[in-house]
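Write out this protein's structure.
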Amino acid sequence: MSVGDGGHGVTGMTPPSGTHAHCEDLAERIERFLDGEMDASEARELDGHLDDCLPCTSERDLRARLRELIREGCAEQAPADLVERVRARLQEVSAGVEQDDDRG
């Protein structure tokens, strides 16, 4: 716990609506946490806070689920015929560029 944090472990946090006054910078901290960009000490501190703060835990879970949905939504692959048409067109363009370079 840090001095001036009201005994809650995470310092200087402004609350998202419906949370406690000690939950400032929650969004930024949770994003860094989910990205694996926190050092071990800071991650442990946030974990401890999440153990005691249901609103922050809910926010973390919501953000983690949102990331998962985005990942799933971006995982679709283009149809094989489209991939082949794009490759063929890229080869045509590339061949045209090479011919222009040879003339230059």
